[in-house]
What we know:
Helix content: 25-40%
Distance between the termini: 43 Å
Number of domains: 2
Largest sheet: 6 strands, parallel
CATH topology of the largest domain: Rossmann fold
Low-confidence stretches: none
CATH superfamily of the largest domain: Glycogen Phosphorylase B
Number of helices: 14
Amino acid sequence: MQPSNQLPNSFCIVRLSAIGDVCHVVAVVQAIQKSYPSATITWVIGRVEYALLGDLPGIEFIVFDKAKGLRAYYDVKKKLGTRPAFDVLLQMQTSMRANLLGGLLSAKRKIGFPVGLGKELHNLVVREHANASDAFHVLDVFKEFAYAIGVPAFDATWSIPISSRDQLTASALVHGEPGYVLLAPSASHSERIWMPERYAAVADYCHARGLRVAVTGSAAPREMDLANLICDLADGTLINIAGQTSLKELLALCRHARLVIGPDSGTLHMAITQQTPVVGLYAHSNPRRTGPYQGLRSVADAYTDILASRGQEDQQQLWGYRLKGQALMREIQLETVTSLINEALNKTYEARPFS
């Protein structure tokens, strides 16, 4: 609780990355805005992530460009200038880089993760901790930061702007028609990528259901190569848009898709912010922690099965416990994924036209 009767007037959020995590933070920040409509909110964020969220209303963004090394810290301090200390700093990332940054910023209160979840000097930077509740999903843990400053319990909602220009560009990529299936096969680590031939089989399955399929990815050569391979392996014609979208355009594509399919990646969580159904493919990270929010039933979960086969079920209760191995994604069977696709497609659907 606030230590005095004075309500906080200024908040600073430290969450630099990654795309999925900053999408979770948006729900928390917008809940704070509703509870403290007169307060100023400053968010220190990564350069890539800023491209997606930099136009959120009512938030001052300060970009931390990690490519600049030590200069990035100086740039943040320079941007802040001589302004007074923030009333509250929410240290919502535990990486060494983020913790060092949080340590440099001035705030009357510095609130961090629940005791036991901090790492890399996190507990030395913060003076208070969010409540150690039964929360397990990352977003539910993030909610505890809001509760620590008096925000009442809330359901996660998102309002992320998409410009008319981004809508128009996205529309052109899929020939102006919403309701396609969007494959987002890439992940930040190659071991989390499902087999291309199974993605191709999924595309063919969706084609047989009368749906168009688009394949997305960044302009990174390995992601474009993966998209090209999936398109080559599929019997039908896919819309290959890898390397052709900004993050905002990708968000628009997520919004107007009927279904988004992929591993634990930013694209999957972007789709959740747009209330678009997803099918998640998980083998390395616990979907209870990093899966589509409130969408565990739409996950092809090999993670739990692999732990059970190793007699390591107790590890599932460890927050952040990950499995490693290049072959783990092979445990996700095509039939499991097509069954989840069927469940998603059998639900009532209303196309959202591009605007």
